[in-house]
Amino acid sequence: MTANTHVHAHAGSVRKQRLTGNKRTWTPTKVVSTVLLILSTIVFIFPFYWIMTGAFKIQTVATAIPPEWFPLKPTLSNWLELFKNPIWRWTLNSFTISIVEMIAVCLVSSTAGYVLAKKLFPGRRIIFTMFIAAMALPKQVILVPLFTMLADFGWVNTYYGLILPAIGWPFGVFLMKQFAQTIPGELMEAAKMDGCSEIRLFSTIILPLLKPALGALAIFTFIASWNDYFSQLIMIRSTTMMTLPLGVSMMTMQSEFMTNYGVLMAGAALASVPMIAIFLVFQKAFTQGITMGAVKG
User: Fold this and answer.
1) Do residues 288 and 216 lie in contact, with contact meaning Cβ atoms separated by under 8 Å?
2) Nearest to 216 by CA among 166, 296, 291
């Protein structure tokens, strides 16, 4: 009886601990941090909310002061005006450039990062230092010589001129190199002892281990390519080659006297939907790839 009583008492104490452990205790620090997080969330979400609601407002309401926080008389006129332009062609151009650039950057960065992390050769540290230095170099500094070189190749106003200069992204090489350093060298040595070739080693062993970093790099590359308005503005000459962000901005500049902010917001809302969808789907890849690659390295 004594043993049974002891068992029941222990079970009761464990149950009580679980019940009390599930209760959330609100300390002043938690209250302040929660309030700050809520306010920060509202601040960051508000621009997207304003764009989405402004896309359904007429011009006079979209620019009214004081503002109309929610469209009382929503309209589709902005969207109808927007789709009078070759929106689908611009969207296809954006997706083509972003997807091809994403695949190419992941392939080049993974191979370069693997070589810099696991292969010993003269000048390895110098090459990696040059990649680090290139990360701090603004794109505007190399724009004139890059444009001159692409013009000599005849690649202005082509997919080549938009995709190829972005393939050697220094950040991608840095991220993959830092992540590849966490791969055990013994695993590679065991594969070579089993007769595994270098190509097979990289494709069947290294690449699967690089999946978290590749996922994060793919999303970063897609977003950077989709929003690369500056390069697209310099390299694109014809309307049919325009991307969605560039086409929307050019469309709003057609008016000589004023900008149609309702149409502008409709175009911005349309251009932001793919980015938001990709972030929500691959949100885990962002954090996992960065923390496992950069922090561990």
Assistant:
1) yes
2) 291
CA dihedral sign of residues 278, 280, 283, 284:
negative
Per residue of the chain (297 residues), what is the pLDDT tens digit? 444 544 444 445 545 545 444 556 778 788 888 888 888 888 888 888 888 887 787 777 766 677 778 877 878 888 888 888 888 898 899 989 989 998 999 899 888 888 888 888 888 888 888 888 888 877 778 888 888 888 888 888 888 888 888 888 888 888 888 888 888 877 777 877 777 777 888 888 888 888 888 888 888 888 888 888 888 888 888 888 888 888 887 776 655 556 677 778 888 888 888 877 777 776 666 666 555 544 444
Residue with tokens 């790099």: 217
Half-sphere exposure of 251 (CA within 13 A, CB side): 28
In angstroms, rounded to a whole number, what is the distance separating the alpha carbons of residues 149 and 171?
Answer: 23
What secondary structure, in 3-state letters, does the chain show? CHHHHHHHHHHHHHHHHHHHHHCCCCCHHHHHHHHHHHHHHHHHHHHHHHHHHHCCCCHHHHCCCCCCCCCCCCCCHHHHHHCCCCHHHHHHHHHHHHHHHHHHHHHHHHHHHHHHHHCCCCCHHHHHHHHHHHHCCCHHHHHHHHHHHHHHHCCCCCHHHHHHHHCCCHHHHHHHHHHHCCCCHHHHHHHHHCCCCHHHHHHHHHHHHCHHHHHHHHHHHHHHHHCCHHHHHHHCCCCCCCCHHHHHHHHHCCCCCCCCHHHHHHHHHHHHHHHHHHHHHCHHHHHHHHHHHHHCC
